[in-house]
Specification:
Length: 480
């Protein structure tokens, strides 16, 4: 199988498969062009082992997001939240209850789901939020008037929108959303009264005024069992189709399934994703294209600890499509934390939405108004200790004129880069000793050899990159 095989929506084409723990097996022998990873001018992060060849006294490191002060009041809250980035604002969608005392346990699912609404907030910077009075739906429990959807039975439980980036999408359907549940066996009387469950599709020109795309569910209820999570879809430029990751029981465990569509109405038969560790419940998929490298889908699923008071962790995984997540790390990305609130029932969920909120930072949004930050591209790095180490990529081809890197060193640390041919020999003019030493902390730094940066003569040829590092982190690389 060619390692750079393209994953497409149609079945039967080659797929790149990663193991759950991110381990790959390769044959012996020098790499030719057919074995090289064709990265073009894409930005590549080290969230999987696509580019990882040799690690010599270096290791892949998962970085810990930093908890920031809570977003300002009025604070958007609620489970299954979604944060979108429109050209002129951030948009926050979250669930509200007309009467929080009405639960499915004490009043039944019909009263409970009738009492749910979808609420909306806006922000210019992702930190300071307002609740606009929209005047679309009125209810005394929400005097701010920020309801965008009401009286849509079961849909408001997990209404999850996205901005459709498909070229040529009609303006009236620029925003799309899925929402809905499947009935449990004991709820058939309600089903007969209210109609079948499943995921229903909605469209909007602005993310505020929504209408149902059609009355029937676009994803049938028997696929979900029970869809009671956040089921997110998006347009994939890499795969040229809509992709949806949704909740499904797999082998008695809460897990994740995937389906694709060309028109957002007709969906391919689902596949069950290989993601769970033995005995592990993954309550949400939270899988989305990374905005700086949209061919990479980053996932922030919830690990559900049913026997520990339903406490939850936020994990980190990635995928490039197909049926398998790459799980380089099994530890949590975000723990419940010091407060009792974080250890409450299902209290630690990540919202859909990883967004830039500063010149060098991205933000993750969680329940209860929490916000965490990382540097841009800063989920995983190739890390070297002070005594030094090396990282050599798999054979690759590129399209660009300069090599840029996202990196950080200590005051004492540094790195140098060598370009090698497919057999691991230094390319004249790009040897290690010719690389100008790199130290500091930059989101995008051009690598130079004897003050020269032009690598265009190597475009299309098979190369390897050798990084010699000390007390340093390499987060991403890109040929500009």
């Amino acid at each position: 199988m060619n390692f750079h095989s393209i994953i497409r929506c149609q079945s039967g084409l080659p797929r790149v498969l990663f193991s759950i723990l991110g381990v790959m097996v390769w044959g012996e022998g020098a790499a030719g062009a057919e074995d090289a990873v064709a990265i073009g001018s894409r930005r590549e992060l080290f969230v999987d082992r696509l580019l990882v060849g040799e690690l010599k006294n270096t290791a892949l490191k998962l970085h810990e997001p930093q908890l920031m002060p809570p977003v300002t009041q009025p604070r958007p809250n609620g489970h299954y939240a979604t944060v979108l980035r429109a050209p002129d604002k951030f948009q926050f969608y979250y669930r509200g209850d007309k009467d929080p005392k009405v639960t499915w346990k004490n009043q039944g699912i019909e009263a409970y789901h009738d009492g749910e609404v979808t609420l909306y907030a806006e922000s210019a910077d992702g930190i300071h939020w307002t609740l606009p009075k929209l005047g679309l739906h009125e209810h005394p429990a929400f005097p701010e008037g920020n309801i965008v959807l009401m009286n849509e039975f079961m849909v408001n439980h997990n209404f999850t929108p996205f901005i459709d980036t498909r070229p040529g999408v009609p303006a009236a359907e620029k925003y799309k959303a899925l929402g809905g549940l499947a009935y449990q066996p004991q709820q058939q009387a309600v089903r007969e009264k209210r109609g079948p469950g499943g995921l229903k599709a909605y469209v909007s020109p602005d993310g505020i005024h929504w209408k149902k795309l059609r009355d029937e569910p676009v994803i049938p209820e028997e696929w979900g069992k029970y869809f009671d999570s956040q089921n997110y879809a998006f347009w994939s430029e890499a795969e040229q189709c809509y992709v949806c990751y949704f909740r499904r029981f797999i082998g008695g465990l809460r897990g994740i399934a995937r389906t694709t569509s060309k028109d957002f109405i007709h969906w391919t038969p689902y596949v069950e994703m290989k993601a769970n560790l033995p005995g592990e419940h993954l309550y949400t998929a939270c899988t989305q294209p990374y905005f700086r490298a949209p061919h990479l889908y980053l996932a922030l699923p919830t690990r559900f600890m049913e026997k520990r008071g339903a406490a939850t962790d936020v994990l980190f995984m990635s995928t490039r499509g197909g049926e398998v997540y790459d799980r380089l790390f099994t530890q949590s990305l975000i723990r419940p934390g010091l407060s009792k609130e974080g250890w409450a029932n299902r209290a630690n969920y990540a919202a859909i939405g990883i967004h830039q909120t500063g010149d060098t930072e991205l933000s993750l949004f969680l329940t209860n108004g929490r916000r965490y930050t990382l540097r841009l591209d800063g989920f995983v790095s190739v890390n070297a200790p002070l005594e030094g180490g090396e990282f050599i990529t798999r054979p690759l081809t590129f399209d660009g004129n300069e090599l840029t890197i996202n990196y950080a060193t200590s005051a004492a640390g540094q790195m140098q880069v060598e370009i090698q041919d497919a057999q691991g020999r230094p390319v004249p003019g790009f040897a290690l000793e010719e690389c100008d030493p790199i130290y500091g902390d930059h989101i995008s730094r051009v690598v130079t050899w004897k003050k020269e940066s032009d690598v265009s003569k190597l475009k299309g040829t098979v190369i390897k990159l050798r990084f010699v590092m000390s007390d340093a982190d390499l987060f991403a690389l890109k040929f500009e």
